[in-house]
Sequence to fold (593 residues):
Amino acid sequence: MSLRDLVIRSARKTPDALAVKGPDQSLSYQQLDRLANRLARALSRLGVKHGDRVGIWLDKSANAVAAMQAILRLRAVYVPLDPISPVARVHVIVRDCEMSALVTTHKRAQSVLGDDLGDLACLCLDGETPGPGLGQKDLHALSDEALPVSESDENEIAYILYTSGSTGQPKGVCISNRNALAFIDWAAQALQATAADRFANHAPFHFDLSVLDLYVAFSVGATVVLVPDGIAYLPGRLVNFIVNEAPTIWYSVPSALIMMMEQGNLLSHLHLPLRAVLFAGEPFPIKHLRRLYQCWPAVRFLNLYGPTETNVCTFYEVTQIPEDQLTPVPIGKACSSDRVWAQKEDGSIASSGEEGELMVVGPTVMVGYWGRPPQGDAPYATGDIVRLQGDDNYLYVGRRDHMVKVRGYRIELGDVETALLAHPAIHETAVVVSGNDWEACLLAFVVLNGDAVPSLLEIKQHCAQRLPRYMIVDRVEYVSSLPRTRNGKIDRLSLLRHLSLDNRSV
Amino acid sequence: MPKEEIMEHLKTYFAKEVLGNKDIGLDEHTPLLEWGIINSLEIVRLLSFIQKQFSVEIPNDKLVADYFTDISAIADMILDSVSAYRN
Fold:
């Protein structure tokens, strides 16, 4: 069994069932299967073979889903890219994983080939290809019959998700067929998913949350309805999407749900066909979750946990939220056949009531980062500090380092600071998160070298050349010095306090 | 409204609302999405500004990266949406 078999199997069983509804088109299982065959033939003509890395740089669309399937059918590895990633970022990833082809649009192909990547083969889905490769017309001339493929090994890499791009050094998380399937099988069972389900896909494809929406749906012959990129953070339109598209399963970061509750009047809709709401990526503030939970008593609420490197390795189903509870719900217990434990500073395993770093071993733990030594059977250290509760559930407590989450994206504050320090006018800086939930933004306190004061625009441009988009600072405040703790470290708490008192930032 | 005027309104908006009252270096081809001047937080504010200023609601199918790359692209999209709305 491999990841590519899910669509093929459902296409055989229920060819006319709706597989994916995207902003571009709707595809039945048979249509998705055939489009994937045609795309696979095109990529094969471009020389893509077993083990090659193929990028997908498209807006969220049914076409992009078909491209993933096509790449899997060649036993190649797909690499989804942020559709609005700056070209410079795309270049870094193309080079890091030694990409052999890119599925994209004419316009994007033009921008990416402009530099020194002239030999990257592009498959352009909306027109001619500007460089080497194939275009829309070539694609239509190809057969939609399946290509013969050899059986794939379950440990083969299926896709690479680039994450938390530390400065200049992106990290490609390599997920094998086995890694993905262990998680998908668990999720399908936990949700008791059936062909009648409609999965809403909120997360972008380069974000690991999307794996559940797509593949759990495909594994049971259900439908996945894609939330267009452009409305993902527009509360009113997102609520309209839920009302009109009538998903039965919703999975997103808590920020998106809170935003819909606060600004989109989500809770005025009491009788939606939703039967499960899943959330992950950051803690769900309990007062918001409680409101949602009380408003929709017939809906199941599941908190899923796991860094991209482990897929989902623990989960907790909400069964009650006492009125006096102030802490977020726990991340729960191990799932997906994984084993987890909390390791204390002295290396021993935490017992009930104690804290430690959450460690994970099992079938969902990544193969490794692209281009680095494989993970093997070594436990993956998440960097997350958890407490083991009396009921055997783990509770998320915080981070070991300065990593923060903003709308589910993980951000290493030190990486943002390093990028800022590369600017000649900046002498010293500390970056903090200001604001809560969906309003969270990155604020940099900056001490300058001299009299030159860079504009915010210049700072953003500077960041964009070095960091993924979600790590670009939102605001800058110039200060004469940074507060220090007694042992000389930058005093982030004092900066945050200063923030709440004073809003004179640029 | 001519495109030049729409672009002027947009430029003032970004300078004032996003860039701390400074428009140094901002022009109609500044890559707004790539440089994070429009992001998931700012898009809500931008759309409500467009709706108020130009009395047009941007349809969902126009909410894609291509129409928001820079001030010039947004102005074209607004002109398009206004004429589609009138027809």
User: Anything to note?
Assistant: The domain at 3-86 of chain B is CATH 1.10.1200.10 (Non-ribosomal Peptide Synthetase Peptidyl Carrier Protein; Chain A).
